[in-house]
Please model this.
Amino acid sequence: MSNQVIAPVAAHEPPYYAVVFTSLRTEGDNGYGETAERMGELVREIPGFLGEDYARTPGGLGISVAYFRNEAAIDEWRNHLEHRAAKRHGRDHWFERYSIHISKVEHSHGFERAHQ
Model:
């Protein structure tokens, strides 16, 4: 089990881009966890990757929002060879359905409670 603190991605100076991936998984893991971990390692190597928020509902809806500084960074991730292979495998094995939405963030702010 990870000791990583779970927190929202910090607000960044706009403009930047949000890639929203919503999904409904198939039954069973079938290697998904290991591949998702590997994709997380790889995307962090992309210049312009700013971070990712992720949640899954008890009903199985997954929501991932990845933040990128510019469209070039999104294109680099979209065309990364290992990522492309993982996407093909996902369509064949892990997902019943998914949607991808890309938007430009023009305003961003955050809040963090001060702890004493």
Remarks:
- Residues 23 and 98 are 4 Å apart (CA to CA).
